[in-house]
Amino acid sequence: MAAIQQSPAARRTPQATEGVSRQAIEAMTDAERDGLGYFSVMAALNPHPAAGVTMFRYLVERNLRQLGYSSAELRPMQERPFREAVRSYQRQIGAEPNGTLTLAQGERLLRVRNILSESRITAGPMMMVSGENHLIASGTWTVLDGQAEHPVNRSHLTCSRPQSQCVEAAARVVLRDAETGGSLASDLLTYRIVAWSPGEIRAEIEHRCVTRVLVLRTFTSEISLLDRPHPVAECRLDAGLSPGIMVLRHGAEPIAQYYDERRAAAAGDLSPELRNFLNRAVAGPPEAPTVASWR
Questions:
Q1: 79-92 and 103-117 helices cross at what angle (nearest 10)?
Q2: Where do the record's region annotations for Disordered lie (predicted)?
Q3: With the C-alpha atoms ordered 110, 116, 120, 126, is the resulting torsion angle positive or negative?
Q4: Which residues does 221 contact at the CB level (< 8 Å), separation at least 6?
């Protein structure tokens, strides 16, 4: 499996940060910080430098072990084995194997381990119940080509003809890369109903540069959401548009696909030995030879 491509900044030899203040590091661009030595930056940004470096050294050693770059012994690594483990990791991700982690490489090492060990979150099926003056539906928004807008999301729609509005209660889990777990974000959106017929309900919500159109087809239980950009100059570069026509569907398939792709990319950072071991474990023991197999 190919390793994740790395930015040129992350391939640079770590720059010395001794004598660089916290203010100087915080004033740097992301690309400049990425090329600094990981432990030097942690020491400069931590109010207790020695304790901070000790803690992050422990985390880096733990992650190197869990990704297959060192033995599973729990005692701290000596400096030479540690640098050899770092070199092996750097070779795997396509970086210069100098034995010294850059900030970008250290953060990537911590992020990959968390992605590989994260708990999967799923969502339920799509549902629609409609009557003469009311409609209730729930499901997961995905782009028309099958990709999830938010990897883990769930929406509940309630439409009322007497009130001339549809209310959407939306929730999504924002997965963290630097820490385990994730955070829950929620929205409550009110759409104005512009048309209600026996087979279709159409509602709209206005944003600064776009009108979002919600279409609910009761006969086929199809629900879609599309953006109608405002044709004004100040909105040409607006980044708030949806990535395409959204449809409300069952939640399990797109979310499972997202997790598989996310984990497959992170697995490129595993050591070749550990990846081969895991592949053999998944494949199971080889079948015993039979007479038929000899022919």
A1: 80
A2: 1-20
A3: positive
A4: 126, 128
